Structure formats: C-alpha cells, structure tokens
Amino acid sequence: MKTRDDLADLAVDELVEIGGVEAGQAAELIMNARKHWFEEEAKVRSKYGRCNRRAIRRGAEVPVDRLLQQLDQAGIKVDSAEDMISEDASTSFLRICDAVTPR
Q1: Distance of alpha carbon 63 from alpha carbon 18, whole angstroms
Q2: Which end of the chain, N or C, is less surrounded by CB atoms within 10 Å?
Q3: 3-state SS assignment for residue 61
C-alpha cells in the first residue's frame, strides 16, 4: 500500500491478513481512509443531480455534451469528446455517479 486510496480499496479480511490487525480495527482504518470519498461525493452531489452510470455500464449512448458537463461538474477537466481521462478520474467520476443516482 502506497496511498490512502490503496488502503480504502481493501476489504477488511485483506487488511487483517496484510496488517495483522483485528477485524474491528481494520474496518475502522478502512472507513477512515474512505472518508474523503464521501466528502468529495457530497460536494459534487450538491452541484448536480442524477448521473447516468447505468447507461454508461450498458454502453448506452450518453449525449456527449451531457457527459462533458457532468465530468466538468465533477472537477474532471476535458476539452472535447476525444480527450482521454485517467483511470483514477474515471473511477472517481463513477463513485460520484453512484452517490447521486437514486437506488
């Protein structure tokens, strides 16, 4: 593990095995590492409504201008539909989508 997100991505049993800590402590460490995700999601949730993650997962057509707008609102800067975004930015965007999409 090198980053806070590396820790946050672990399951409790993985951290117990790697770190030699008890399950309760592992769960607390992981949730503390994830705290910034929820704070980020709350900020973005206040800026815009529903996200179209289900459509993205299914490969459905999402209007390019709408997707570019959502990316911008999530703090991911792109100039055109041809721009590439990093895997980290994509993961962050999809986490935000999950936070604002009603279940």
Answers
A1: 44
A2: C
A3: coil
Length of the chain: 103
Distance of alpha carbon 35 from alpha carbon 66, whole angstroms = 28
Domains of the chain, residue spans: 4-100
| 20: amino acid identity, one letter | G
pLDDT, tens only, 43-93? 665 654 455 555 555 545 567 777 788 888 888 888 877 778 787 887 877
Give DSSP secondary structure letters for 34-47. Answer: HHHHHHHHHHHHHH
Query: Distance between alpha carbon 1 and the CA centroid of its chain, in Å?
Result: 18
Residue at token pair 């792109």: 78
